[in-house]
Design brief:
Order of helices and strands: HEEHEHEEEEEHHEEH
InterPro entries: Galactosyl_T (IPR003859), Galactosyl_T_C (IPR027791), Galactosyl_T_N (IPR027995), Nucleotide-diphossugar_trans (IPR029044)
Membrane topology: Single-pass type II membrane protein
Shape: globular
Radius of gyration: 17 Å
Number of strands: 10
Structural class: alpha/beta
CATH topology: Spore Coat Polysaccharide Biosynthesis Protein SpsA, Chain A
Subcellular location: Membrane
Oligomer: single chain
Keywords: Glycoprotein, Glycosyltransferase, Membrane, Signal-anchor, Transferase, Transmembrane, Transmembrane helix
Number of domains: 1
Number of helices: 6
Pathway: Protein modification; protein glycosylation
Helix content: 25-40%
CATH class: Alpha Beta
Length: about 220
Amino acid sequence: MQTQYGSDIRPGGYWFPSRCQPEQRIAIIICYRNREQHFKILLDNLHPFLQQQQLDYTIFVVNQHGQELFNRGALFNIGFIEAKKYYPFTCFIFHDVDLLPEDTRNIYTCADQPRHMSVAMDKFDYKLVYSTFFGGVTAFKTDDFLGTNGYSNVYWGWGGEDDDMYSRVVHKLKKPITRYPIEIARYKMIRSNEHISAPANPHRFEILRSQYDFKLD
């Protein structure tokens, strides 16, 4: 990694600027399964993107093994727990492996409210999918993420955990989400003929409608 992304990247995917002292220590959590090529493309783009923003950041990767359905929420929770053991980060960014930020004005830091970073994706003609959409890339200050009790662990398969997190932010944390303007928060989705998307969770809408106690999950 040091040779490919710059000699000043420390072991473990840690980088910090030498000419300034950033206000936030940022942990970027990426989760995936069987998408090594996507992950490599993301790193090729993300490291120079973050360094241009002069950020103090560390990238953490959580890779799911086994034959169970993919559980994005649980993997992000694992990444958060493990990253906190490594350093008391002040900002956590949860990042899909197939999304590439396009505009360096989309600053990878945390605000006083949870932030939805990936507002406009090329897959959706650079339009917000729906008003409560909270998937793709999100940013939380540490206390805000703890205040939501993290992502739900019950969504096995594609979909549901991002809408669930939106409800946690609004109803449990009692904060609005923030977004950069749509012309800034733009992302390109990596496409591959070799990757097969995870099956959708057939119970995701039932779980969302059930309004179960966030404290129990």
